[in-house]
Amino acid sequence: MHLCEAFHKEDIETHTAVDDADVLIVQTAILEANQHASVVVVGQDVDLLTLITALTPKEKNVLMLKEAQGNIPRKVYNSQEIRQSNILHNIKESVMFAHSFSGCDTSSSFYGLGKIKIVSLLNKYDHVQDIAAVFNNLLSTHDEVAATGEKFILALYNAPSTDRDLNH
Description:
This protein is mainly α. Helix content is 49%, strand content 8%. It has 2 domains: 1-85, no CATH class; 90-168, no CATH class. It has 8 helices and 3 strands. Helix 2 packs across helix 3 and helix 3 (46-55) runs antiparallel to helix 5 (91-101).
């Protein structure tokens, strides 16, 4: 007997992810938030927290419980508090961009550059926020995304302002 079948026999609702489980988990949590004041997602993966921050409507509250691991204590993240914090300027619009450039389940990170460097860059320069906006715009062309992506990579590595592309 499969685990899902055993849960169904006990009247426990289950969902099976066909693709990315993180997306299904967060989408399910947001749907549940329509019926409950708070919903808690338990997990260790920063991808979950990123998706919760980016996808949860402002009037909803989804919590993420990150269990203790070794010397790192348990922590509860609150989607509404994260959106109101100053961790990242325009967090709702920038978090997926920052996360994808700093490495996640579906993309590699740049050598020697972590999440803090990318968040710092997004917070420091307004024109970098414009780059994130191009990535978020469904009407942006492939060429626009490529050109702004190059600009962001150049900024990440502190390239001189005279460098306009990666072919140097």
